[in-house]
């Protein structure tokens, strides 16, 4: 079993630093691939994030792993810890940037995130050699009800 640790930063590309970023609540379909490999043809990860606009708390899941973290709606930066439950030997650290066209939660806002990741040993706290990669994602839905899960192919 492998745990995952996610560090996320977000911003509104057209907004000044003091402008609040919208919440990151919803279903994010991600494409993650190892360095030297090509981007997958379809999403291979689904981040389900719970975050109310203006809240600093983020929870959720990535596959069977729980997500716990914080999010700054002012700066857009977040730190999320995913799957550090007992028995895991490493985490995966994601370093991404959220981009929103506006503060709206509407799908027409086309929220995305992109960045990189690496695996980190829980024993040493050091990155595992040759374990880096890239990740990009789109928010399929800002809701996570049954209809949204079906729409995003997660039913």
Q: pLDDT under 50 segments (min length 5)? A: 1-19
Give the helix/strand class: mainly beta
Q: Could you tell me the radius of gyration in angstroms?
A: 15 Å
Average residue pLDDT: 78
- What is the tally of helical segments? 1
Major sheet: arrangement of strands: 1-6-5-4-3-2-9-8-7
Key descriptive features of the protein:
mainly beta; 9 strands
Would you give an account of this structure?
With 155 residues, this protein is mainly β. It is built from one helix and nine strands. The protein has one helix at residues 146-151, and strands at 4-12, 26-34, 45-50, 57-62, 65-71, 77-82, 90-100, 112-121, 133-141. The chain has a nine-stranded mixed beta barrel with strand order 1-6-5-4-3-2-9-8-7. It is globular, with a radius of gyration of 15 Å. Residues 1-19 have low confidence and may be disordered.
What is the secondary structure topology, with strand pairs?
Blueprint: E1 4-12, E2 26-34, E3 45-50, E4 57-62, E5 65-71, E6 77-82, E7 90-100, E8 112-121, E9 133-141, H1 146-151
Describe what is shown at a glance.
The protein is built from 1 helix and 9 strands. The protein is mainly beta and 155 residues long.
